Amino acid sequence: QPGEERHEFGAEVGRLLDLVVHALYSEREIFLRELVANAADASDRRRFEALTDSAKALPDGAKVRIHPDKDARLLTISDDGIGMSREELARNLGTIARSGTRAFGQDMAKLENAKPEERPSLIGQFGVGFYAAFMIADRVEVTSRRVGEDKAWRWSSEGQGSYTLAPAERDLPGTDIVLHVKTDADEFLEPYRLETIVRKWADHITWPITIVRDGNDVAANEGTALWRKPKSDITEEQYTEFYQHLGHMFDKPWATLHWRAEGTIEFTALLFVPGMRPFEPVESTRESRVRLHVRRMFITDEAALLPPWLRFVQGVVDTEDLPLNVSREMLQATPVLARIRKAVTNRVISELRSKSKDAETYAPFWENFGAVLKEGIWEDHEHRTEVAGLSRFRSSTEQGLVSLADYVGRMKPGQEAIYYLVGDNHDALAGSPQLEGFQARGIEVLLLSDQVDAFWPERLDRFDDKPIRSVTQGLADLSAIPLTDEPADEAADVEALLPAIKDALGDAIAEARITDRLVGSAVVLAASQSGPDLQMQRLMRRTGQRMPG
Ligand code: ADP
Ligand code: MG
C-alpha cells in the first residue's frame, strides 16, 4: 500500500498481546465492552473540545455503531468521536502510556505469574483496553480522522510485534475499528449475541449504541444513565421503569434514594427498596448485588456495596474515584470502596429510620424484608443497635408490630428485662405455657418466629440499657412484680415433688425447681440462664451441633 510504514510495538504491548492472544477463554466478550467504552470516551472528549470550539461539535445523531458482516467476517465499531491523528494512533495504539492503566506494570506481573488456566479470568477483570480486540480478531484495522484535521490514517496490525500506518480516507471525523474475526469467534458476528453483550456491559452508556441487524440500525442500549440526571428532571414513572428494568420487578419501589455525594469521595447513588419480595429468594445469595459503575460504565455487581443484611436493596453506585479498568484485587483493597460502602449503608439506614416513623408505611416493608434486616443484629457489630431499633416484632399483649422502644415504654414497675419467646410459628408461641407467669403479671413478651430469631438475641445484650432475656432462660425474676390476677388456688407444697421428678427424668434435665412463671400449667421446660435458649438448642440439635454443658 502506498505510504505504508511499518513500526514495532513498544515492549509492554508485546508482552500484553502475547498474553491476550494466547488466552483463549470464556470472557472474550469483554472486548466489546472495551471498544464501546473507547468509542464513548472519544465522543465525550469531542463534546468537551466542542465547548470551546464550536467547529468541532458532534453531528446530529452522533452514536456508536456496531456492524457485523457475516459474509466478510468483519465486525466494525464506529464512532463520531474525537478521532486520532497519525501521531496519536502510533502513541495510543503502539505503546502503553495511557490514562487508565496506572497499575499496568503490577497487573502484568500478576498475569504472567498466574497459572495459565487462571489467566483468562484475570484478563477479563483487568480490562486490557484496545488490545482485547485481538482476543477475537486476527487482524485489526483502525481508520481514524482527528476532529479539526482533513486527513485520515489507517493503523493495522495482526497483533504480532508490529503495526503499519498508512494514509486513508474518511469523510468525517471519528474512528472505525475493523475486526477480522477469528474462525473460532463466529458468535461475535451474530447481532443478537452482540446485543446481549451491550445490554450486559454498556446499557448505560449515554451515547446511542446501534447494531446493524438485517440491514437496519437497531438501538441496543437504554442509554439514559438515569442516575446522572438531576432529580428534578426525573419523573416517578422513569424511576419505576428503571427499577423494574434493573431488578426484573414489576411493582413500584417502596423507597427510592437518589443522591450525589461530594467531598472526599464522589459518587452518585440510585437505590431502591423493592415493594415486594423478588422471585429469586433473598436467601439465595447473601451478597449485595448493587451495581458498581465507574463513569457510567458497568464494572461489577459483586462489589458488596451494602452489607448482606441490606441485600434486598437494589440499584447503582457510580463513581469517578476509580479507574475504569479496576481489577477485582484492587476493588478489595481500595479505601475508596470502603468509604462508599460506609456512606451508602448509613444513608439506607437513615432512610429506613425516617420511614419507620409511619407504622402503616413501614409494615409492608417489614413483612417483606424484616427477617433479612434482623440478620444485621446478629452479625453486624457496628450497626447492631441501629438495626435493633429499626426492627419490629409481634408481642403477647399488642396487636400489630411493636418496636423495642415501644416495649420499653410499656415495661411494668419492677420489670428489668425485655422478654422474648422464640419458636417456629406465631400461634404456637401465643398459646405457649411459657408465657403464663408473664401474662398473669401483664408483662409483654416478644414472640419471635423467624429463623434468625434463634440467633440475634444472643448478640444483642441490651437495648436502651435493658437486658434482653428469653422467658425460657432459667427463672425470670418475676416475684418482684405483682400478679394482676390472683391465682385461684393457694400454691401447694410442691417442694417435696422435686427429687421425684429429677429421679424420673435423670440426665434428661439438669435440675427440677419451683418457678413463678406458671399460673395454669403444672410443669414447663426451661433453659438454664447461662446456656443457649431452648429454641437455639433445638436448632443446634437439628443441625448436628454439640451443645455446651
Ligand atoms: P484506555 O481507554 O484505558 O486509555 P485503551 O487501550 O482502551 O486504554 O485505549 C488506548 C487509547 O487509545 C485511549 O486512551 C485513546 O486515546 C485511544 N483510543 C482508543 N480507541 C479510540 C477511539 N475509538 N477514538 C479515539 N481514541 C481512541
Ligand atoms: Mg479503553
UniProtKB/TrEMBL annotation:
Keyword Chaperone recorded: yes
Residue intervals of the Histidine kinase/HSP90-like ATPase domain: 27-185
Recorded superkingdom: Bacteria
Subunit structure: Homodimer.
Keywords: ATP-binding, Chaperone, Cytoplasm, Nucleotide-binding, Stress response
SMART domains given in the database record: HATPase_c (SM00387)
Gene symbol of the encoding locus: htpG
Name of protein: Chaperone protein HtpG
One Pfam family of this chain: HATPase_c_3
Subcellular location: Cytoplasm
Family the entry assigns: Belongs to the heat shock protein 90 family.
Region annotation (A) ranges: 1-328
Summary of the function given for this chain in its UniProt record: Molecular chaperone. Has ATPase activity.
Signal peptide region: none
Main location: cytoplasm
Cited PANTHER family: HEAT SHOCK PROTEIN 90 FAMILY MEMBER
Lineage: Bacteria, Pseudomonadati, Pseudomonadota, Alphaproteobacteria, Acetobacterales
NCBIfam families hit by this protein: PRK05218.1
